[in-house]
Amino acid sequence: MDYRRLGKSGLKVSEFSFGSWVTFGKQVDGGDAKTLMSAAYDAGVNFFDNAEGYEAGNSETLMGEALAALKWSRDSYIVSSKVFWGGTKPTQRGLSAKHVTEACHAALRRLQVDHLDLYFCHRPDIDTPIEETVRAMHNLITQGKILYWGTSEWSGQQITEAHLAARTHGLTPPTMEQPQYNLFERHKVEADYLPIYDTFGLGTTIWSPLASGLLTGKYNDGIPSDSRVNLPGYEWLRDQVQSEGGKARLVKVKALAKLAAEAAMPVHHLALLWCLQNPHVSTVILGASRKSQLKDNLSALDAKSKMTPDLMAAIEAIVQTKPDLPQRF
Question: CA-to-CA distance for 205 and 282, rounded, in angstroms?
């Protein structure tokens, strides 16, 4: 396992990290959570991602129980939470100072830690001034309850506004962003954020590197009964796979699978390693419901040397998803 700086910060995160979205509390119970986290940690993973909105906090509870049982030294791992969807009442949602603060306290209790290493604004909140959110995050940092704060699925403009608010009022700016990034979803990471990587030293902890399983090839011949698209509450994933756009992507996945086989690797390894070729990616968040699945994904790192310029060009020729860059670039 190699490690990369989280943007301009001094924090080193493992190239592959482990997240609990969809799995913990949905497909994975407490015992399995401990097994999966232990396997990841033993492989060198040091970042474990979570959010208040994952299974209404139950995902964090399971991760907290696993952390307590595993008894790792607190200075050897990184744990995160995200704030936005905490409940149905107006004070339980969004990025107001009240909810940002109380959600942090709740996450600390569920995760059974005394501080969060990373704390993300899970989405932008058009009803809350950015300065209010920035100040709330700054206050949590000065209190020692979080170490770094960031955003998830914010636009480059919104991140810029957060930095401006921080600079104007002497507050702590965001360090990282958690965007979706894969061979089919590239605009934010490769175009929208391009002007601010160097300006602000933005780090990225990317999610859905396999496009919700599409890039594993498991949907090439239909939808398996045990796949996540059949889980209650995730019907939108099924619709995504079965849409005309999803069918067009499957054609490309089949071509990518053939290319990957020629390079002596499975297509999902190709997709994961493709993400790591972008120097602006700090870490790729993996998800898994079985130990064998997690170990298989982690083993993709053994094939990093196969990602040659020729192979990258061949991938680009198949997917043809490279976004147009901002005019200044």
Answer: 6
Task: Give the confidence band of 239 by pLDDT, cuts at 50, 70, 90.
Answer: confident
d(CA 212, CA 301): 20
In whole angstroms, give the CA distance from residue 47 to residue 205. Answer: 10
CA pair distance 202, 159, nearest whole angstrom: 9
Confirm whether pTM is higher than 0.85: yes
Residues ≥6 apart with Cβ < 8 Å to 269: 260, 297, 299, 300, 303
* 235 pLDDT higher than 80: no
Return the closest-CA partner of residue 268 out of 186, 213, 190, 324. Answer: 213
Domains of the chain: 3-213+268-307 (3.20.20.100)
State residue 26's pLDDT score.
87
Tokens standing for residue 301? 């790192």
Q: Return the beta strands (E) in 180-271 as ranges.
A: 203-206
Q: Kindly report, residue by residue over 108-144, the tens digit of the pLDDT.
A: 999 999 999 999 999 999 999 999 999 999 999 999 9
**Which residues does the annotation mark as catalytic?**
54
Please give the Cα distance from 74 to 115 (Å, whole number): 10
Instruction: Give 270-313 pLDDT, tens digit per residue.
Output: 999 999 999 999 999 999 999 999 999 999 999 999 999 999 99
Which residue matches tokens 């060198």?
44
Task: Return the residue matching tokens 């990957």.
Answer: 260
Q: Quote the tokens at residue 210.
A: 């396999």
The answer to whether residue 229 scores a pLDDT higher than 70 is no
* 8 A C-beta contact, residue 107 and residue 120: no
Specify burial of residue 76 (Cβ count, 10 A radius: 0-12, 13-18, 19+).
exposed
Give the count of beta carbons closer than 10 Å to the beta carbon of residue 11. Answer: 20
